[in-house]
Amino acid sequence: MVLAPYGVLQSLLRNRDLEATLESVSRVLVPGGVFGVDLVPDVPNWREYRNKVQMRGRAAGGAHLTLIESVRQEPRRHLTTFEQRYVERRGRRVTEHRFELTFRTLPLRGMVRTLERAGFSIDAVVGDYRGRPWDERSDVWVVLAHRA
C-alpha cells in the first residue's frame, strides 16, 4: 500500500512531477497493490481573501498572538496559494513566522483521469474516512485505487 495524504499530490505543481510520482508509486506497488489518495477538497472554489485575522489571544507568559491568513487564486496557472502569518508580541518585541503552501487546482475528475492514465484502476471515490459517498461538498476527497 502507498498513501498520499492531505493533498500531497496537489502540491506537485507541474505535470511532469505528478507523472514521475505516479510512476514511482506504480513501480513500488505489487500488481493489485492499493494506492490511497487524500485530496484537499474543492481547492478551485476557495474564496480569495487577504490578511484575515483568524485568531487572537494570549499565550502563557503574556505574549499576544495573532494568526493572519490570505488565500489567492491563479486560475490561468491552476494554482491556489494559502499563506499564514503568525505574529507574536511581547511588549515592544514582535516576531513573525510565515508559512505558505501552494496547491495545484486539479478537480477530482481530473485527478481520477490522471491516475487511470498512469495505469491505476479506481476502486472507490469517497467523501470521508468512513467511506460515505463523495459529493463536491464533502470534507475530504479520498480515492482508492490499485495497480492494474
Describe, in plain words, how this protein is organized in 3D.
- There is one protein chain.
- The protein has helices at residues 15-28, 108-117; strands spanning 2-4, 34-39, 49-58, 64-74, 79-90, 93-104, 120-126, 141-147.
- The longest helix has 14 residues, at 15-28.
- With 148 residues, the protein is α+β, with helices and mostly antiparallel strands.
- It is built from 2 helices and 8 strands.
- The mean pLDDT is 92.
- A 4-stranded mixed sheet has the order 1-2-8-7, with helices on one face.
Write the layout of secondary structure elements.
Blueprint: E1 2-4, H1 15-28, E2 34-39, E3 49-58, E4 64-74, E5 79-90, E6 93-104, H2 108-117, E7 120-126, E8 141-147
Largest sheet: 4 strands, mixed
Poorly predicted sequence stretches spanning 5 or more consecutive residues: none
Q: Calculate the terminal CA-CA distance, rounded to whole Å.
A: 13 Å
Strand coverage percent: over 45%
Radius of gyration: 19 Å
Tell me, what's the shape?
elongated
- The average pLDDT is 92
- Number of continuous helical runs: 2
Strand order in the sheet with the most strands: 1-2-8-7
**What structural class do you assign from the helix and strand content?**
alpha+beta
